[in-house]
UniProtKB/TrEMBL annotation:
Residues 68-79 have a biased composition (Basic and acidic residues). This is Peptidase M60 domain-containing protein. It comes from the Bacteria. The chain crosses the membrane at residues 12-34. SUPFAM superfamilies: Galactose-binding domain-like (SSF49785). Keywords: Membrane, Transmembrane, Transmembrane helix. The lineage of its organism: Bacteria, Candidatus Nealsoniibacteriota. Residues 46-79 are annotated as: Disordered.
Amino acid sequence: MENFKFYNRGQVLFGIIFTIVIVSLISGGLYYYLEKKMPKMPEIIEKPVGEKTSTPPPETSEGELTEEEKIIPEKEPSEVHEPEVPCQSECSQTGLKKCSNNGYQTCGNYDEDNCSEWSSIINCPSNNICQDGKCIQRECADGTSYSQCSTTKPKYCNNGSLINKCSACGCPSGQQCQGDESCIVSSFNFNLSVNPASGSTTQGGTISTAVNATLSSGIPQSVTFSASNLPASTSASFNPSSCIPSCSSIMTITTSSTTPTGTYPITITVGSKETIYNLTVTGGITSLLLNPGFENGSGNMPTSWQKDYWSVTRSTWNWISDGSTVKSGMGAAKITSSQPNDAAWLQNVSVDPYSSYLFKGWIKAENVTLADPPNGFSTGANLSVHLSLNRSPGIWGTQNWTEESLFFCSIASSSVKVAARIGYNWSLTTGTVYFDDISLEKLDPPFIGQKTVLCFLPEHRSILTNPSGWLQKLDAAYSALQDLTGQIPYDGNKVVTQEVVSYPGGELIAGNPTLWYTNYVPNTLQQVNNYNYLGFGQVHELSHAFDFYGSHYAGNGPINPEHWANFKLTYVADILSATYPTATFSHPTQGFIPIGDFPYEYFVVRYAQPWIDSGRTDWQNMSNDVYTGLLYLLKEDIGWEPFKQTFRDYASVGSPPATDLEKVELFAHLLSANAGVDVTPYFQGWGFPILPP
């Protein structure tokens, strides 16, 4: 029984297995059949961006093998290109725009797949919103942008609504801002001020100030300027006389020589308002000029002035009488030099002999340019005096009214010519200049001696502690030079030494007056105080005044005029040393030494003796200081008398010799005759190839 059960169970198991096998075979065969007979459906794969779509293979009729079904032995199967699903457009119309947040997007093909997509968001600018795919500026009804002031004050665009906001947008002219931000029409008002509020002038002078009317409220109206409570013999004018605030007017106050001195509160009235200007009038300085402000004249000529020029055709002279270009008043003088020239307005003025004066005035310059190469006489527009090389510093280029001044001293003459000038001696200039308010006033007198005069700037007068003591020595030097040469220069007039501000061409320039450059004056005056300094430069230039018949004995090289001035100075030193033994000259290595020692220590020891010791005979290369020392050594042998007579003899000599050597020979022959001994061997030994008398 047990075996039967087992048998039956085996049969059942076998049947199950058999059935599974049969079903599997049938299923496999059916699958194979269907796979061959039915086309394979392509797999839908999402295409990468930018990938090209391949074309699917053509369909075949039922029962016909496709190219894919044909089996080709020993060849690798080709790549299968699956058909691609067409793209789906995200937007329908290229160029169509839509709003997104506070920006817009545009429809278009941005990846070359023939499908249209939306672009990224393009944000709208500030104060704009997106509307129908466009950025629209947010505006109020009148076109004013959000958060901006309207052109119609005091309106303000506040989130689409126009509101009053005068604190930010202001009010129309003539209206005032209120607390509720609205504007109301205000009454006309202005603030009145004067700047400067005070000033001082001398009797006969003028002064100006600015009067300012500044609009503070209301609709502007014209106002008129006037002044009252003026002192006697004083007038006030306004330019302009009326204006519409905010505006300014220049008040010019003109005093006269009879205006009382003192301080006056002048009332300035402008419309309905008043302010005070404090005027101080001091004692006037009488100008020695006629028509100093060019207020009077006729045609193109101001009264009392005349033209002066290097070339009359290169400049034009004009008298201005309409107040168009003036410093004050209505008149001024003008010169225009279109070509290089030295041109001036000139006036001859009466002065006192040996007196100090200050010549000053106002100059306005336009394009003043030096035509000649720059030199020590380049001056531009200036004030000068036709007395010597003395003038004011000068103005160049284009400058508004500038005051120039010139200090000078008169000589024996009772008149001088003063000039308002463009250009100067050896300084031709182009440009246009205006002159106004010129004056000439007398200052404190200079220091006046018997033969000489010392004239210093006011600020340097007090440096000299004993001016009369120095003048006494300079007078003695003058007398010694007169004794040496037997001559009297400048018709016996005193020789003036005058300090000048502008460089005259050297520290001291000989003449009458002798010009002394101001940069050297203070130190020399202190040396006079501290060392009893006689003044080498002052005596040297004074010696030039005694160069009578100089063309007979002065030439070039060793016999030049500087030699003869120094040789005459050695005589002064010898003579004055007896009276003023402590007076000094400055030696370059020994300091201040007595004037009696100076000629030998300086000219002989430093120059003449080395020449003699070297045995040199090349007289053409001899310095003037060597020759001075050699003559001083000769003086030691024959004394001063032959020299004194020789200088006098030149008065009776005919024409001067033609050459330097002939001048030396003439001098040696005259000196020999006056010494009673032939001195030509001295000159021959020094190198001069001259013949004996």
